[in-house]
Amino acid sequence: MRLSKNYGRAAVVLLAGSLSLTACSAGSGGSTADGAAENTAVTVALTGEPVNLDFTTTAGAAIPQALMSNVYEGLVEIDQDGEIQPLLAESWELSEDRKTYTFKLREGAKFSNGEAFTAEDVKFSIERVQSDAWVSSLKAKMDVVDFVEVVSDTEVAVTLKQPSNAWLFDMGTLVGAMFDPSGVDDLANTAIGTGPYAIEAWNRGQSIELAARDDYWGEKPGVETASLRYFADAVATTNALQSGDVDVVYNMQAPELLSSFESDDKFQVLEGTSNGEIVLSMNNNEAPFDDVRVRQAVMHAIDRQAVVDTAWNGYGTVVGGPVPPTDPYYEDLNDVYPYDPAKAKELLKEAGAENLNITFTVPTRPYATAVSEIVVSQLAEVGINAKIESSEFPAVWLDEVFTKQDYQMSVVLAVEGRDVLSMFNNPDYYLGYDNSKIKDKAAEADAADEAGYVSGMQDVVRTIVDDAAANVLFIFPNIVVADANVTGIPANSVTEALDLTNIGWK
Amino acid sequence: MAIRLLINLARFVVTYVAATVLVFLFMRTIPGDPAQIALGVNATPELLAQTRAEFGTDRPLIVQYFDWALGLPFGDFGISYVTRQDISPLVLDRVQVSLILVVLAMIVALLIAIPFGTYAAVKHRNPSGIVISGISQLGVALPNFLAGILLVVVFAVGLGWFPANGWTPPGEDFGDFLSRVFLPVLALASVQGAILTRYVRSAVMEVMSEDYLRTARAKGLGKLEALVKHGLRNASIPVLTVTSVQLAALIIGAVVIERVFVIPGLGSMLLDAVGNRDLLTVQSVVMVLVAITLIINLVVDVLYTVLDPRIRKKA
Lengths: 506, 315
What we know:
- The complex is a heterodimer.
- Chain A is an alpha+beta fold.
- Chain A has 14 helices and 20 strands.
- In chain A, α10 links the parallel β14 (about 355-365) and β15 (about 385-390).
- The termini of chain A are far apart.
- Residues about 1-35 of chain A have low confidence and may be disordered.
- Chain B has 13 helices and no strands.
- Chain B has helices at about 1-30, 35-40, 45-55, 60-70, 85-120, 125-140, 145-160, 175-210, 210-220, 225-260, 265-275, 280-305, 310-315.
- The radius of gyration of chain B is 24 Å and the shape is globular.
- The interface between A and B is large, with 59 and 58 residues.
């Protein structure tokens, strides 16, 4: 008898529990719908959580995405059009010999630990990148700096070993982040910067909560608190958006889920551009792709627009080269290798490479698997039989393809900004491109004035494309789905940062 | 009884040590260099060497093994390659979340299985009993993650009654905790409940055919009354065995469900750590799961002897 009584009690508890649940969840749904006018918080869904908060020792896009522009700031920043704009430096002057930048610093900027931002901090931050404290491979971008001089509290002069156009741009990325000497003890857990937000809480496996700082030097951001919530996959993000748990899904990785949002007035879908290139790599060191004609055949064999349309629902930009439209030396190179299967066959015949059998190593990423099917079918039409081999990303892909260069063809999203030289001006890089033809040109371009930089780099890029070093299928779109009332979303993802400062509500 | 307990303990230790060796070796055979993953695509050989030295992955395997395995019993799991923090407190955080999920799911599963299973047994010739038995058969075939996805589609995205995912600790906001934990627990419990219903049904049917129940009924007790008074204690032993085995299965199911519902438990931690080749974290989380499973078995063994005097005497 005892048992059955317990059942009864349990059933009552369960029933009461479920009733209270429905009641409270209905309540929370209501508040997001009508509380929009005085909304001071925004929740952004992202995929891929930072493993720690220290981008000076840990690679990956997630950490700078959350922290740059929001918590950390640089002397300059890269705007939505890819232009360099002043940030912690009000202005700067470049010496006659183009080697010394003298920055005039903004007054009144403070780190979130209360310390004032001064010229000493600039010297400290730049020199720290060059020291052993930085383990990130991006530190090489600071190699060009010869020395840093503190002129006064608000003036600092940076002298380069040789003129470099790339350097000032890089100062707008994470290597240019400004640190306080007393704020670097525990970077993995504590981020102290001059930015508009400070980290209020970090719930591992869940979210990072940012709160607007009262003592920020610049304009107040659009919302008081911003919550970055991390999800394992795209479906979970759109589920959360639909059930009202998040307001913005940034950098959506599943365009096939968009249709229901596109037709719904409650949501907005934005397509921005990004720095990311979908690179169909051909191992330049390995047969059959050590023959330029075979690589050129692949360029002609693939209808890049069809790839974007089929694999990524038409989102993405076809550019024909390894440079996104937001870079200063961008030009449309689609005409170099128009889709021409006949020409491809001809080239293959010339190279004596008819009926090729190759292995196509595809990393386990949504874009890569989506792209691989159509690439394989287009290659088949010109007589290249590609066998797909799946490769766990990042671990196995990095090991086999990237480090050991044990592959024939692969496809990967290269996300770093202005990365054409890091991809092609290094014969040890996994693409295996012989850089002898571009090495000197690239160095000259970097050292030239701005006009010379643009024309020199265009020359470099054209050489790379002529050599068919790799087939850049398309520029990865930055797709954003959001509540229709959210404003100020930076749709273009031009640097690694997700700048939250302008996000607000209608 | 003491001897039995000692044997159990010895088995516990041997299994645990064997598991540490296997898990350690397995993690070394899967491809992928933790240092390369931590540094990314532009790492130089010098930086890689420096990072490997820092991680200790350049030391001989045997040194790496003892360094890790000897720390385990003292709760020292080492430093994570990716978070660069002590692993133990991070694991402890996640264990709580997973245990809440698993325990709630098991309670709900038993609340489903005991009444329905008993009913299906008592009425095994009636249509209602056959229907219950059929539904439970379907539930057994349903994978946890599919149940989870279906629940999200219907109750979160479709009807909007519950959040689709996420986690709030019960101490922070209990109402929100309940609303977030409801669907994942239901996903786990519905499948478990179906499995357990079938075991309860067969256990009860077996007990019903025993002589002592017939005697009880002959004395004038009703079918259900006889069962509750005399049969359920005996039926509970096979059910307990299955519950313990299923508890282990539930922990594995939770790993997947945590992914579907974006819950920061051990499962999410494990999958992230595998992806990042955070070897020490993977090893440690797996060993925590192994330990939990072994402890459950140990406890169940002890419970047997309490529940069934015959087992006590055998030892």
